[in-house]
């Protein structure tokens, strides 16, 4: 009878072994594949985080550059404002000019400090110093300062 069983076993294909929970194949191969997959996922996550950080830093640089430009333009405007005020009133001593958000980009306001000082031995000239802060928030502002000497035309001068 043993001959019959051998023929039947050969005719039905290879013997099926009982499963021990291990997949067929060399031991450790499954672990190596898992490690390669984990390394690839870690590299992908690292690259994605790096690109995201770079984008955030670039966005902050662009915003800061825009704020610097706005503060510089506000300082120039403050010098012009002081010159106009001095032309109308030679006793003008300066002011704190609060620029509302609606006058700028609609989100952030600005604060501009204007100081006017007499120059020694020059009654027709004033030293104007301006300091522009944009936005008007102490923790995130950009500050730009300028100064200029402004010539005041006498009341009799029509030039």
Describe it for me?
With 159 residues, the protein is of the alpha+beta class. A hairpin with a 2-residue loop joins strand 2 (110-119) and strand 3 (122-134). The chain has one domain (33-151). It starts with a helix and ends in an 8-residue tail after the last strand. The protein contains two helices and four strands.
Based on Cα principal axes, name the global outline.
rod-shaped
Structural category is alpha+beta
Helix content: 40-55%
Cross-sheet strand order for the largest sheet: 1-2-3-4
Overall average pLDDT: 84
How many domain modules? 1
Largest sheet: 4 strands, antiparallel
What characteristics describe this protein?
four-stranded antiparallel beta sheet; single chain; alpha+beta; about 160 residues
Can you give me a brief rundown of this structure?
By secondary structure, the chain is α+β, with helices and mostly antiparallel strands. It is built from 2 helices and 4 strands, in the order H-H-E-E-E-E.
List the helices and strands and how they pair.
Elements: H1 2-11, H2 29-88, E1 94-99, E2 110-119, E3 122-134, E4 142-151
Antiparallel strand pairs: 1-2, 2-3, 3-4
């Amino acid at each position: 009878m043993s001959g019959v069983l051998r023929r039947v076993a050969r005719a039905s294909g290879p013997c099926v072994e009982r499963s021990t929970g291990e997949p067929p194949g060399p031991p450790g191969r499954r672990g190596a594949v898992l490690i390669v997959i984990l390394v690839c996922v870690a590299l992908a996550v690292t690259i994605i985080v790096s690109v995201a950080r770079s984008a955030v830093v670039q966005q902050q640089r662009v915003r800061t550059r825009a704020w610097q430009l706005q503060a510089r333009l506000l300082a120039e405007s403050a010098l012009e404002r002081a010159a106009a005020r001095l032309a109308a009133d030679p006793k003008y001593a300066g002011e704190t000019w609060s620029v509302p958000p609606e006058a700028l980009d609609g989100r952030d306001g600005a604060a501009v400090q204007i100081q006017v000082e007499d120059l020694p031995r020059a009654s027709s000239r004033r030293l104007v110093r301006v300091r522009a802060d944009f936005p008007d928030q102490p923790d995130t502002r950009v500050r730009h300062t300028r100064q200029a000497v402004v010539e005041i035309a006498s009341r009799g001068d029509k030039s």
